[in-house]
Design a protein that fits this description.
The chain is an alpha/beta fold. The chain has two domains: 124 residues, NAD(P)-binding Rossmann-like Domain (Rossmann fold), CATH 3.40.50; 194 residues, Dihydrodipicolinate Reductase, domain 2 (2-Layer Sandwich). The protein is 34% helix and 27% strand. The N and C termini lie far apart (44 Å). 47% of the residues are buried. Belongs to the Gfo/Idh/MocA family. InterPro entries: Gfo/Idh/MocA-like_OxRdtase_N, GFO_IDH_MocA-like_dom, NAD(P)-bd_dom_sf. Pfam families: GFO_IDH_MocA (PF01408), GFO_IDH_MocA_C3 (PF22725). GO terms for molecular function: nucleotide binding.
């Protein structure tokens, strides 16, 4: 018997919702049931322009979506300042919650969201799409290979893009009342998650933001960096920015090997994503080169990573309908990412002083 598709309601018409709407329609176990916006005209236009099924319901307001008894799950791409209210309301209406990142303004808000999800038995997942690409699992295999990679010593990650003058003036991500975390919340979230992924989600002991962060006139972060330190000597750095040419790098360094990926956030090609590894590298005679040359590993996928995310999320919902409990992995990863993000923000506010990360 074919699996009954999970029926999604979408809260708002954010630009990222275009991508996730497409993902919902591509996922074999999901469908779009409804969308809500503050304007009926805007919601109707969004549905038409993005090829929603004719059966999709159009609502004025977000509450109408979560009140619809036929909506199984909601995707929430609203400004971060609205996540607490609408994610909690959705959970209280027994709707599973796929929440855009950054998931909250701070860990205290996130704890309230997660408590609402847990107490109502609904699945929570953040929308960090690259986690669901098959390349991510392949890269993890290399990092766990003691012979080829050895012991992890350091990680560097960056996610930067030149947002342009219109973005820097008008986008919600530079408005203190909408997305006060700015580049740290938008791009830094990915860097922090990449670092935590590389260390198997072990929280660092301390975080120290790097001097030289950029802010707009309203005090919103436009670029920043940080170092992270672990008790056993591991160290990591990251840099995120709205002011710098596009980069999406993860570089974990081990005692025996190195992994490099140059497009971890959004693969440069939708159906194939490479990464590069080297082991036991040495300079050649007279340092005229090095050997062995890093090897390229290309990982293919029929579905884009955002559709794989939706498929996994919908699969978890299907398991809950069959009597399973919500998967706790995803709330835990969101909370750890938020905790490190919070520590970086506090370090910036304290004049780039070290901040201890306490679980």
């Amino acid at each position: 018997m074919a699996e009954t598709p999970v029926r999604f309601g979408i809260l708002g018409c954010a630009n990222i919702a275009r991508k996730v709407s497409r993902a919902i329609m591509l996922a074999p176990n999901a469908t779009i049931h409804a969308i809500g916006s503050r304007s009926l005209e805007k919601a109707s236009r969004f549905a038409a322009e993005n090829g929603f099924p004719p059966s999709a319901k159009i609502y004025v307001g977000y509450e109408a979506v979560i009140d619809d008894p036929d909506v199984d799950a909601v995707y929430v791409p609203l400004p971060t300042s609205l996540h607490l209210k609408w994610a909690v309301l959705a959970a209280e209406k027994k709707k599973h919650v796929l929440l855009e990142k950054p998931v909250a303004l701070n860990a205290t808000e996130l704890d309230t969201i997660l408590e609402a999800c847990e107490s109502n038995g609904v699945q929570f997942m953040d929308s960090t799409m690259w986690m669901h690409h098959p390349r991510t699992a392949k890269m993890a295999e290399f990092l766990s290979d003691a012979q080829r990679f050895g012991k992890l010593k350091s990680i560097h990650s960056s996610f930067t893009y030149d947002a342009g003058p219109d973005f820097l003036k008008n986008d919600i991500r530079v408005k203190p009342d909408l997305d006060a975390l700015g580049a740290l919340g938008d791009a830094g979230w990915y860097c922090i998650r990449a670092i935590l992924w590389a260390v198997n989600y072990e929280l660092p002991k301390t975080v120290t933001a790097l001097p030289g962060a950029d802010f707009n006139e309203a005090g919103v972060i436009l670029s920043c960096g940080s170092t992270l330190h672990w008790a056993d000597g591991k160290a990591a750095t990251f840099y995120c920015s709205f002011l710098t040419n596009l980069s999406m790098d993860i570089i974990p360094l081990g005692t025996k090997g190195t992994l490099r990926v140059h497009d971890f956030v959004v693969p440069l090609q939708e159906k194939v994503a490479p990464f590069y590894v080297s082991s036991n590298s040495r300079f050649m005679e007279l340092a005229l080169g090095c050997e062995p040359i890093p090897g390229e590993h290309a990982v293919t996928t029929e579905l884009p990573q955002e559709a794989l995310m939706v498929r996994e999320f919908a699969g978890l919902i299907g398991s809950i309908k069959s009597g399973s409990k919500p998967e706790k992995k995803w709330p835990i990863l969101s909370r750890k990412t938020q905790m490190v993000l919070d520590a970086v923000k506090v370090s910036i506010e304290r004049g780039f002083k070290p901040v201890e990360v306490v679980n």
